[in-house]
Design goal:
Helices cover 0% and strands 57% of the residues. The chain is mostly beta strands. The model has no long low-confidence stretch (mean pLDDT 95).
Amino acid sequence: VQLQASGGGLVQTGGSLRLSCVASGSTFGINTMGWYRQAPGKQREWVALLSSGGSTNSNDSVKGRFTISGDIAKNTVYLQMNSLKPEDTAVYYCYAIPRGGARLWGQGTEVTVSS
């Protein structure tokens, strides 16, 4: 399975970005997709997830600002990021979890929020 993330970029504080991720290859059985992020010098942090049943969850640090959406059956997930803050600056990684399998990672897309 290959995960292709896109949509990162440079934005000012308060701005918005929309990240996209598409999974391809042997995608049968994927039941969860989501996002992590890793800021410079920090550990990777979970951001949000979307399950095949349509349920979502997100880290408290982004609740009310970020919205995850997509269609697991179509192997796509999006992350709408609003009211961005400098502390949201990070490389954002898309992931997918196949039923009974290990987490799979995409290559990451960089988000920079200027103050």
